[in-house]
Design brief:
The chain has 28 helices and 20 strands. The protein is of the alpha/beta class. Strand 18, helix 25 and strand 19 form a beta-alpha-beta unit. The structure holds glutamine (GLN) and zinc ion.
């Protein structure tokens, strides 16, 4: 019988129970013992449902209070000095939380550890912080305790731990800066003995298989890292009485394939949804290793084409027999938990989808089919029919959209005139001062605003009352901006709960779940929309709000849209056509909106693309293709306007070097970016590239409640002016203000405008 296993299950709970419990604990409303109890019952529930589904090896160690890498740092005793950890004491739960968030119910607050994106997913992990002389030791027992728990429940646990090279590669430390991080590799000598102890302890608990995650094997690794693999795994294998399953995911191994196959491990897992390594090369080099293949996509929500999977698997099964294992492509952490609870999705759409629980059922079906078990036939047939229905459905194929897309290649991707000519016309039309001031779009989302939106959605507030209230909010926002003397105003985005969901709800081809939450970081979850069909704009989406806002003032009001790449990136995207095509459909819908805004007298239009960079593929070889279509989509959406209509864009992340050419290629008249926390150093990329268009480098960090000082902002702008021509500079915060309070916003923006005035005088 084919062995079925799972690489990880979402820990958050079908109703986000973990989020609620952890947040209640932070707020002091739950005792630690009560929190522990919630964690334990979630683990039990998740193990139980995996075992009941028919999974043979149950992952243990995928549970985390905040993040699985942070859990492992605590296990290894990797606690930065500022948290005051005694080196002979175990790391406590509150220390773990202090590392994640800077504070916890007990213990002295300290600066939280950095968080960053987990490969190309929307999950964020806590970056391990290593000292040059870092000591490692087993400093937390939870992994071993959980193995006992799982055994007590009658399961066969397969502990999951990050591999040593992945752990080090993803870590940081003051002494390892710079391109050459061989210093990190030097830590292996002290790290490996602790890994050996961990493996020995697990073996002592009767563990047969350990899953050791080495996802960095899908990256373009530097030579010294690639070379370190053999040495490290020789040492681990020599000590281990457990069998090691080396798990890779999020891509193919490509240049690292032969390295991985040479390692003295007992099995290797490959992601077959994202990777395409030649199995003809793999099988002869396997020796007596197990080959585990992931044909069920752990990162989207579509039902699997099991026939296609079987076609690929049958010959391998014939060759490898029981040495062929099956699993999802990666941990199911990245899928929502359970489709069964979705009571508002229609039956047809639901029949096309599969969340974590359903993916396990698919896996079991696939396993049975591979083993020739005829009881799988009915399930396979049902799956086939669902897939066929989806591909034939009129809901996924809109002839008009298809035609429009086919003709889109005829549409020019260039503005009428080059930037120099446009900006002159825009300046004549907009009559802005030097160092013009603006904001990024949203203003504080007050309780009253949220309540109004909620009541309107629930039908407790009728359209007229809702519209009236939103208009009052817009009017207040405009009046405030006039008072504080901002130059380019915004309507404030009161009507938007989320910058992607808002547009998804107004476009055809999008669906929304009630419980389709996926962990983003810590207790934070996101509920991405599902793009299931051709995207079309049935009616203008933002024009009436913009027109109303503009009617209240003589100053220009910016129209505000979310860009095509960001809408794509923050949704579950259909898998039956290239992402680029879906993105172009969104771009065409936005293009109509841009033109309608212009028609309505809106002279400045901002298209936010904060997710442009995060869409970059993991391997550099694929960057160009992605950036080409991403830029193409932005231009498709924006270039239809007259020269004197000013196009803005906004991005907020901290690395522009990699994509500066693409940013310039967007040809937005103005870009506002997040730079305040880096002291304007991020502008170096723009200087070196001689970025030609206008830039608004954010002058204060909206994530902080502190009121920015005038002098501080003036100095930042002076630093900006050392790098870029003064006449190209704008003054603005570094992101939207929706998470801030009005009390904080008023003072901050007043100071910002004062700073701009000082800059103008000094010219
Ligand atoms: N216009 C959006 C806002 O101001 C931009 C948000 C973002 O960059 N993430 O909220
Ligand atoms: Zn932003």
């Amino acid at each position: 019988m084919t062995t079925l296993h799972n690489l990880g299950f979402p820990r958050i709970g079908a109703r986000r129970e973990l989020k609620q419990a952890v947040e209640a604990y932070w707020a002091g409303d739950l005792q630690q013992s009560e929190l522990e109890h919630v964690g334990k019952s979630l683990r039990q529930r998740h193990w139980d449902l995996q075992a009941k589904a028919g999974i043979d090896l149950i992952p243990v160690g995928d549970f985390a209070w905040y993040d699985q890498i942070l859990e492992f740092s605590c296990l290894l005793g990797v606690v930065p000095k500022r948290f005051g950890q005694q080196t002979d004491q175990p790391v406590s739960l509150d220390t773990l939380f202090r590392m994640a968030r800077g504070r916890a119910p007990t213990g002295t607050p300290a600066a939280a550890c950095e968080m960053t994106k987990w490969f190309d997913t929307n999950y964020h992990y806590i970056v391990p912080e290593l000292a040059a002389d870092q000591n490692f030791r087993i400093a937390r027992e939870s992994l071993f305790d959980q193995v006992e728990e799982a055994k007590a429940e009658g399961h066969t646990p397969k502990p999951v731990i990050p591999g040593p090279l992945t752990y080090l590669y993803l870590s940081k430390g003051d002494s390892f800066d710079g391109a050459d991080d061989s210093g990190k590799l030097a830590l292996l000598d002290t790290l490996i003995p602790v890994y050996r102890q961990i493996l020995q302890r697990l073996a002592g608990q009767g563990v047969d298989w350990v899953q050791i995650d080495e996802p960095i094997l899908v990256l373009d690794l530097p030579d010294n890292w690639q070379r370190a693999y053999l040495r490290v795994y020789d040492q681990l294998a020599a000590a281990s009485h457990c069998k090691l399953l080396l798990a890779t995911y999020f891509g193919g191994l490509e240049n690292n394939l032969f390295t991985a196959l040479e390692l003295p491990v007992d099995g290797i897992h490959l992601d077959r949804m994202r990777g395409n390594d030649d199995l003809g090369q793999v099988v002869p080099r396997l020796g007596d290793k197990v080959l585990s293949l992931g044909h069920i996509n752990g990162r989207n929500i579509w039902r699997t084409d099991l026939d296609a999977a079987l076609e690929a698997l049958v010959p391998l099964h014939n060759e490898l027999g029981e040495r062929l294992w099956l699993a999802p492509s990666c941990s199911l952490l990245h899928s929502p938990v359970d489709l069964d609870q979705e009571d508002t999705l229609d039956a047809e759409l639901k029949s096309w989808l599969s969340f974590a629980r359903q993916k396990l059922d698919e896996l079991v079906l696939l396993g049975k089919a591979l083993d020739g078990d005829t009881s799988a036939n009915a399930g396979l047939q049902a799956q086939r029919e669902a897939l066929q229905a989806r591909s034939n459905s009129a809901r996924t194929h809109h002839p008009a959209v298809r035609k429009h897309l086919a003709e889109a290649s005829e549409i020019s991707r260039d503005r009428h005139s080059p930037f120099a000519e446009r900006i002159a016309k825009q300046q004549a039309a907009l009559k802005l001062p030097a160092f013009p001031t603006t904001t990024i779009g949203s203003f504080p989302q007050t309780k009253a605003i949220r309540a109004a939106r909620r009541d309107w959605k629930a039908g407790r507030l009728d359209d007229t009352a809702y519209n009236e209230q939103m208009k009052r909010e817009i009017a207040d926002c405009i009046r405030y901006q006039e008072e504080v003397e901002l130059d380019v105003l915004v309507h404030g985005e009161a009507e938007r709960n989320d910058m992607v969901e808002y547009f998804g709800e107004l476009l055809d081809g999008f669906a929304f779940t009630r419980f389709g939450w996926v962990q983003s970081y810590g207790s934070r979850c996101v509920k991405p929309p599902i793009i299931f069909g051709d995207v079309q704009r049935p009616a203008p989406m933002t024009v009436e709000w913009a027109r109303y806002a503009q009617s209240l003032t003589d100053k220009p009001v910016k129209g505000m849209l979310t860009g095509p790449v960001t809408i794509l990136q923050w949704s579950f995207v259909r898998d039956d056509q290239p992402r680029a095509d879906t993105c172009r459909q969104i771009a065409l819908a936005l293009r109509d909106e841009v033109q309608d805004l212009e028609q309505a007298g809106i002279q400045v239009i901002q298209i936010d693309e904060p997710a442009l960079r995060e869409g970059l593929p993991l391997c550099q070889g694929e960057w160009k293709d992605y950036l080409d279509w991403a830029v193409d989509c932005f231009r498709l959406a924006t270039v239809g306007v007259a020269d004197d209509t000013q196009i803005h864009t906004h991005m907020c992340y901290s690395e522009f070097n990699d994509i500066i050419e693409a940013i310039a290629a967007l040809d937005a008249d103005v870009i506002t970016i997040e730079t305040s926390r880096s002291n304007m150093e991020l502008l170096d990329a723009f200087r070196d590239f001689q970025y030609p268009n206008d830039i608004g480098p954010g002058v204060y960090d909206i994530h902080s409640p502190n009121e920015p000082e005038v002098n501080w902002m003036v100095q930042l702008m002076e630093k900006a002016a050392e790098r870029l021509p003064k006449e190209r500079l704008w003054v603005n915060p570094d992101c939207g203000l929706k998470t801030r309070k009005w009390e904080e916003t008023r003072g901050a923006l007043a100071n910002m405008v004062t700073a701009a005035k000082q800059l103008r005088e000094a010219r």
